[in-house]
Amino acid sequence: MTDDQWDTLLFWMEIWIKSVLWYCLIISLLSLVPAILGKELGFRRKYIDALYLIFNWATQHMIDDKTTKLEENSNEAPRTKKRLITKEAMDELTSPETIIDRNRSISQLGRLRRESVLERPDHVQIVEDVVFFLSSGIEAIVEDEVTQCFHSQQIRGWNLLARTNNYSFMNLGLRMSIVWIGGFAWRWMIIFPWRLVVCIVGCLWMMITMSIVSVIGHHSMRLKAAYWANIVTYRIYTRALGAVVNYHAVENLPMNGSVCVANHTTILDVITLSNHRPYALIGQSHGGALGWWQKRLARCTKHIWFERTELRDRQIVTNKLREHCADSDNYPLLIFPEGTCVNNTSVLQFKKGSFEACDRVYPVAIKYNPWFGDAYWNSSQYGMMHYLMRVFTSWAIVADVYYLPVMHRRFSESPINFANRCKSEIAQAGGLVDRIWDGQLKRTRVKQGQKDEIKEDLAKILDDRLVYKRKLDKKNSYLSSEEES
Amino acid sequence: MGAGESKLPDNAEDIAATCELPIKTVNRLWKRFQELDKEKKGVLDADDFHEIHSFHLNPLAPRIIDLFMDATGHCDFEGFCKLVAVFQPCDKKTASDAVNSPQSKARLLFRLFDYEAKCELHQNEVFEILLLMVGSSVEETQLKHIAKRVILETTGGTRHKIEPEDLVRALDMDTVGVKMSAGY
């Protein structure tokens, strides 16, 4: 290459590098300054509102397309009126889609008792019992309640992401395709790099401030500085995810030295909640990137990280929990009693461990809006990096956090019942389905004891029917003997 | 989920026609079939069924699996669809020879009892099913007694074995139609 060509190349490279640096600087300031001040500029919320309009248009477009196709095929299909799909209506379009309407789950065996009409002849009742089990079995084969909780939630419309497209791409018209391409370019080329830069800013902030805070000698100053360092870190991370979080019933915000339980959808739940106030985390210590992050956090805040072997010993866990809650300087302990990530349509069984260790919990319900991005982390499907890429290239993460009033364990209430009570409160607040199944069932088989329970239940039902029948026979024979006399 | 998984089965339309299922349902069942077929064998065996948690709890699980299995002890996709098709909802307008008619459902119920395919049910077959359902919670003699009663009452006190027509007659067709349907 000639000197001239070198000069031109260097010139353009310099311009390019300078633009990138300016770009990073502007993004950093735009995310850092509001985070430090605790204020929102409002861009993300306006963005969400704009997206609602676009989704509205896209869904209406698809309805029109379908109607036109129907009309092409038959002359009788009525024309759907053009109606504006409100936010509320679009929220309704997010109910979980199931293949079958489940009403014969094996967990409904108790209903057999109510449904069975006791006046019917015995042989019919027995055959109907068999029918119940047969139908229940087929339903479970076609779609079972446990696996269903680990599929991403479907939306009955389209949010212009290829990953949620249940319709074939061939059916998209020209307008839709252009909008989709525009959306794709926006997400991958504009906001994805933006979010990456913000994420790096967040990590740098976390590293620097937490190290500084950990060397502050004065106790109360250190506490204040730690709180500030933590919350700004999470605010920056929230912006990195493009998350918009709405907090409800803020008067129930968990206090220091308490335990907070929430439903678990993703590892990002921590960020969603910590955007409002910092929490102490509890979990297994990992290696790799996650382990690095854990160590950073632990420098200036008290978290509880267990070695894998310690987790087996219930007593150690309980003691550490109690110890943590006893100190009112410690942040509330954030626990996810389900023990696994669930798809945010249901709440699975709460493990009783944390409810054995403490008598007072703050339940929190987290509900993500699936229209803007799928927050659920299916760890068997995606590794963490793949998952983060999906989140960064979604439109946004929109979440509603419902703080519930503190719940106390009642006198002589068992930890399991206490756990179930909290679970149903959370399910109700978040609009989630309350299920009895243990999330670990996705990895292990059901225990024999549970199988035997079902047989015992049915035996009891048969027995009850026999008793009822005897009573009926006695009554009838008494009545007929009365008539004779 | 991974590479090598086809979005649609090759003979989806043939299966939809044979089993009298809409294509959309066939596709959904294909996804489900692949989900159950963890080792990607192309067929399901008994273990695959037992992996389903709420199914494994079902006392009649072994018999239901037998309904799906062919002579080799495996279930291919067509067999899967054929059986599931019986559980489609039906109404008064459903033809009596349709795969989801109440009569067809009652015949499937008969097959559940009749594991030796003898086309008649004796006290023993009914007893076996009862034993599966309640396990050891009820005494065997009592179960045998119940089985005998069931046979007598189903045949109207006339015979000691049940034939398919007896079952069809004894059951209320509306109830069978409703109770043996999974609304999909």
UniProtKB/TrEMBL annotation, chain A:
GO terms for cellular component: endoplasmic reticulum; membrane. It is found in: Membrane. Keywords: Acyltransferase, Lipid biosynthesis, Lipid metabolism, Membrane, Phospholipid biosynthesis, Phospholipid metabolism, Transferase, Transmembrane, Transmembrane helix. The keyword Lipid biosynthesis applies. GO terms for molecular function: glycerol-3-phosphate O-acyltransferase activity. The chain crosses the membrane at residues 20-37, 169-188, 194-216. SUPFAM superfamilies: Glycerol-3-phosphate (1)-acyltransferase. It comes from the Eukaryota. One of its GO terms (biological process) is phospholipid biosynthetic process. Pathway: Phospholipid metabolism; Lipid metabolism. Pfam families: Acyltransferase. Belongs to the 1-acyl-sn-glycerol-3-phosphate acyltransferase family. This is Phospholipid/glycerol acyltransferase domain-containing protein. The lineage of its organism: Eukaryota, Metazoa, Chordata, Tunicata, Appendicularia.
From TrEMBL, chain B:
This is EF-hand domain-containing protein. Keywords: Calcium, Cell membrane, Cytoplasm, Lipoprotein, Membrane, Metal-binding, Myristate, Nucleus, Phosphoprotein, Protein transport, Repeat, Transport. GO terms for molecular function: calcium ion binding. It is found in: Cell membrane; Cytoplasm; Nucleus. It comes from Oikopleura dioica (Tunicate). It comes from the Eukaryota. Belongs to the calcineurin regulatory subunit family. CHP subfamily. Residues 24-59 form the EF-hand domain. GO terms for cellular component: cytoplasm; nucleus; plasma membrane. One of its GO terms (biological process) is protein transport. The keyword Protein transport applies.
